[in-house]
Amino acid sequence: MTYKGTIILESLKSDSLVSKLNIKKKETWNVGNNDPQQPAIWTAISFDNPKDSFLEIISEIQANLKDFWYVDVRDQTNTIIIFPQKVFDYQTGDILQKQNAVNYGKSIGIPESQLDWP
Fold it and tell me: Mind spelling out the 3-state secondary structure of the chain?
């Protein structure tokens, strides 16, 4: 089983953990919905890691995230949303848990337009 996700390079305090990700694609996005505290251009790194190796680095991702950012990952059945101070792990499709994560993201200043994971 693998977790797939995207991490924004500019969201990290240090890019040292990127070497622990199985990078599938790297691209630059010119973002129209960035917060004033975020850059207008983001470097998106899509990855696909085995479940065990990814679960080992969740706390490292969490510790490296800047304020106003999150990382979302999923496997075939679960979604994990990683914020700097909190992690939500729920069964994909659980609308209540997704809304709890969205509400938390808004409460820490992430623009609602960015809280749009599938």
Answer: CEEEEEEEHHHECCCHHHHHCCEEEEEEEECCCCCCCCCCEEEEEEEEEEHHHHHHHHHHHHHHECCCCCEEEECCCEEEEECCCCEEEEECCCHHHHHHHHHHHHHCCCCHHHCCCC
Q: Contact at 8 Å (CB) between 27 and 52?
A: no
Q: What is the pLDDT of residue 55?
A: 87
pLDDT interval class at 118 (50, 70, 90) = confident
Report field, pTM of the whole predicted structure over 0.85: yes
Does the structure show a pLDDT above 90 at 37?
A: no
Q: Cα separation of 17 and 88, whole Å?
A: 20
Taken in order 83, 102, 79, 33, the sign of the CA dihedral is negative
Residue the block writes with tokens 């694609």:
25
Bridge partners, 22 (sequence order): none
CB 76 within 8 Å of CB 34: no
